[in-house]
């Protein structure tokens, strides 16, 4: 066996030698994919991904026709050293010792497989062998699923066709390379070419085997009101797994993974980032196998799949973005941010200006009527807000939504609160002039379309529209149940009532909420069928109402994922509006998602979630690091000095907004590591930058730290807040010093390139 593999190794060496475009210059969409026989090279500006087909001619050899990964990391060209053939002493066969590109199951690789199919006969063995490949300019859309997109200039796609001749199953692996972003986006199609039904029990969108080396893994965990806490730990032998079985991506874990060298920091070292473009249950596995190689898989959660395929039917996996950076965790994040702003978010608002919003939730909760709403809207306009949003509590006729145990599903204005409906209310509000602004106040509304309270007319009429498993009791959370979005009639119901609301008045913003996970589902596959349903609804609504700004929400950030961002350019990051907690949450979220996507608001103190009181300027500075800046408070109910500070904070938020929406984010100091968290945003053209600098605890009788900037042009001169001018080199190598009074100090510093 060893002799055969030795021959195989030398063949691979020969096949791997050919000049590629990186030798001549920077890769672009034309030379991003290079195919030479059965050797494949994918190149971004600073990344190469190389794999080949094992060309063992003896079909009995377990690796014959397998795809083997040669390299995923910094750019390479020309020949690369052939991986030494592992010895096969012991019980782990050759398959368990090599870097397999799409590991199937049941034939001796004992690590986590990327695919597990139950054949009609009941077997769960598959043998996927290379057949052919296709290179496609641009990037085909994924049927029914959110996906990155780009022109032929931006992206090239390689599709590798695999086939299991024993059970007639075709698997197509798709790799789309966005060279400018060092991003390779992968997805998988499984097609049943046989005569009987098969069931896909598990399917990873991406599986990658990294060589023997120490690695750390970084993920985001949390719960309600404490989303996106960064977790870093050493990858150990065995499987380290996280995911969601909630039916949505959830606040418990985010569908994001980074693998980094143990020495990697925010600004230096190798980092691989993986981000699953999906909003449903998912699973991430990181397995260091017995031989020390590390396998990572991201994809469907097998507990919510069991997807049946009849003859001729196909299952398409969600796609998974992978990026590589040598510039640390920060470099990895910036690649994802840029890619997502330009090639994921379909909304015209992705990089467009957004209005300053005042939301009624923390101002009034459920306690209001038409005159209260008019009053708060007038106050909003008077302090310079440009959009007033009516949050929960405006609907329900027979089951009025005056608290959270009734009304969801009955999307008709509550006549006791709004006797003339929404029309006159919206007219009244949109007649108000927003001070310091050329526009009138706009109107936005809250909805939670996928949910129903048992106390509702909708539930009385359609109890069968709710997720349920036979006669099992329907488990309530926050007094509500989940509509089964897998049903076309439920999808149509949502599209129709939403269209009716949006056509009924001049509504330019929607907060689209979703406040619980799935309960009893009829079968595991119901979960993905639901996701296909929700994507149809979101696609239809956003296409029908392109001028409406949609904000996703799920009790805060419980559905903060790329699948939602494909349709909605922003998501309410957390129900926790405490500014100190928000620094952790927003910076954690920024590991994978751009600041432009984050909704952030100033609320009143003591904070409603934590009881902490933080100065209004600090609260404002944290909130303006989000793409959608706003307030959730009753302006009349806050102290006068806070009221007086708001117009200036709003003006500052508007000044920094273009950099938040389109600029690059540099996390200079992390709140987990420093008492002085610091974040720098640099404009796309590099001509402007803004520093957000915070002090969390008092610094009594102690020297002051310097904050060193990053990402500037070291040769250029920059004015600092219009005063002193320093070179980029000075700002990055010496830094700046600021003093704060007491705890919770904050500074926003503006830099202009001279
Ligand atoms: C969720 C949202 C909040 C608010 C309430 C209304 O919790 O995250 O912002 O809209 O619902 O019920």
What features would you describe in this structure?
With 754 residues, the chain is α+β, with helices and mostly antiparallel strands. It has 3 domains: 11-343, Distorted Sandwich (Beta-galactosidase, Chain A, domain 5), CATH 2.70.98; 355-502 and 517-535 and 569-662, Aldolase class I (TIM Barrel, Alpha-Beta Barrel); 689-753, Immunoglobulin-like (Sandwich), CATH 2.60.40. It is 21% helix and 29% strand. Strands 6, 7, 8, 9, 11, 12, 14, 15, 19 and 20 form a 10-stranded antiparallel sheet that branches. Strands 21-22-23-26-27-28-29-30 form an 8-stranded parallel beta barrel, surrounded by 5 helices. Strands 5, 10, 13, 16, 17 and 18 form a 6-stranded antiparallel sheet that branches. The longest helix has 23 residues, at 640-662. It binds alpha-D-galactopyranose. Alpha-D-galactopyranose binds at residues 361, 391-392, 446, 513, 515, 553, 555-556, 572, 575. Residues 361, 391-392, 446, 513, 515, 553, 555-556, 572, 575 line the site of alpha-D-galactopyranose. Residues 1-23 form the signal peptide. Belongs to the glycosyl hydrolase 36 family.
Short summary of the structure?
With 754 residues, this protein is an alpha+beta fold.
């Amino acid at each position: 066996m060893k002799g055969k593999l030795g021959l195989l190794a030398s063949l691979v060496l020969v096949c791997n030698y050919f000049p590629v475009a990186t030798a001549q210059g920077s890769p672009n969409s034309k030379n991003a994919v290079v195919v030479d026989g059965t050797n494949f090279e994918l190149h971004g500006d600073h990344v190469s991904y190389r794999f080949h087909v094992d060309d063992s001619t003896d079909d009995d050899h377990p690796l014959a026709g397998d795809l083997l990964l040669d390299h995923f990391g910094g750019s390479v060209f020309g020949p690369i050293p052939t991986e030494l053939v592992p010895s096969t002493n012991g019980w782990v066969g050759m398959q368990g010792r090599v870097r397999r590109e799409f590991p199937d199951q049941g034939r001796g690789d004992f690590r986590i497989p990327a695919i597990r199919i139950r054949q009609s006969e009941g077997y769960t063995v598959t043998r996927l062998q290379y057949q052919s490949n296709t290179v496609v300019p641009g990037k085909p859309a994924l049927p029914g699923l959110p996906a990155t997109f780009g022109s032929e200039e931006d992206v090239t796609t390689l599709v590798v066709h695999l086939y299991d001749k024993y059970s007639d199953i075709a698997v197509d692996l798709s790799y789309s390379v966005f060279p400018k972003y060092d991003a390779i986006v992968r997805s998988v199609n499984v097609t049943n070419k046989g005569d009987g039904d098969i069931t896909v029990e598990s399917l990873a969108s991406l599986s990658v085997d990294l060589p023997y080396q120490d690695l750390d893994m970084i993920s985001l965990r949390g719960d309600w009101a404490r989303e996106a806490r960064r977790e870093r730990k050493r990858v150990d032998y065995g499987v380290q797994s996280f995911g969601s079985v909630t039916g949505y991506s959830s606040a418990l874990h985010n569908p994001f993974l980074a693998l980094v060298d143990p020495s990697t920091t925010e600004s230096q070292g190798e980092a691989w980032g993986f981000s699953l473009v999906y909003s449903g249950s998912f699973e991430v596995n990181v397995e260091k196998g017995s031989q020390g190689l590390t396998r990572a898989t991201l994809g469907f959660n097998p507990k919510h799949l069991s997807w049946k395929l009849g003859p001729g039917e196909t299952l398409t996996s969600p796609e998974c973005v992978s990026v590589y950076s040598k510039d640390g965790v920060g470099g990895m994040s910036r690649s994802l941010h840029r890619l997502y702003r330009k090639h994921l978010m379909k909304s015209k608002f992705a990089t467009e200006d957004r209005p300053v919003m005042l939301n009624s939730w923390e101002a009034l909760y459920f306690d209001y009527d038409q005159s209260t709403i008019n009053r708060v809207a007038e106050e909003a306009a008077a302090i310079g807000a440009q959009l007033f949003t009516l949050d929960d509590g405006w609907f329900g006729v027979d089951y009025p939504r005056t608290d959270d145990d009734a009304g969801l599903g009955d999307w008709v204005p509550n006549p006791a609160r709004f006797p003339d409906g929404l029309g006159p209310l919206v007219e009244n509000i949109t007649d108000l002039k927003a001070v310091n602004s050329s526009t009138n106040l706009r109107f936005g509304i809250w909805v939670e379309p996928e949910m129903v309270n048992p106390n509702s007319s909708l539930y009385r009429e359609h109890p069968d529209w709710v997720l349920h498993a036979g006669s099992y009791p329907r488990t309530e959370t926050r007094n509500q149940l989940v509509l089964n979005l897998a049903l076309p009639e439920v999808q149509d119901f949502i599209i129709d009532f939403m269209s009716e609301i949006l056509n009924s008045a001049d509504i330019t913003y929607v907060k689209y909420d979703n406040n619980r996970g799935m309960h009893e589902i009829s079968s595991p596959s119901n979960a993905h069928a639901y996701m296909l349903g929700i994507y149809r609804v979101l696609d239809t609504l956003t296409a029908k109402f392109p001028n409406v700004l949609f904000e996703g929400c799920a009790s805060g950030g419980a559905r903060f994922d790329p699948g939602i961002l494909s349709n909605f350019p922003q998501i309410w990051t957390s129900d926790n509006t405490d500014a100190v907690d928000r620094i952790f949450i927003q910076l954690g979220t920024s590991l994978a998602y751009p600041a432009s996507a984050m909704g952030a608001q100033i609320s009143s103190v003591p904070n409603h979630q934590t009881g902490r009181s933080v100065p209004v300027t600090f609260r404002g500075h944290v909130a303006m690091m989000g793409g959608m800046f706003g307030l959730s408070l009753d302006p009349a109910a806050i102290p006068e000095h806070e009221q007086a500070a708001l117009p200036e904070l709003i003006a500052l938020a508007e000044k920094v907004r273009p950099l938040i929406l389109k600029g690059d984010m540099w996390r200079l100091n992390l709140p987990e590591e420093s008492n002085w968290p610091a974040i720098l945003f640099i404009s796309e053209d590099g001509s402007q930058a803004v520093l957000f600098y915070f002090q969390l605890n008092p610094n009594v009788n102690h020297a002051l730290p310097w904050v060193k900037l990053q990402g500037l042009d070291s040769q250029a001169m920059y004015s600092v807040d219009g005063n002193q001018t320093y070179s980029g080199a000075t700002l990055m190598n010496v830094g700046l010093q600021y003093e704060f009074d007491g705890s919770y100090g904050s500074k926003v510093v503006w830099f202009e390139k001279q």
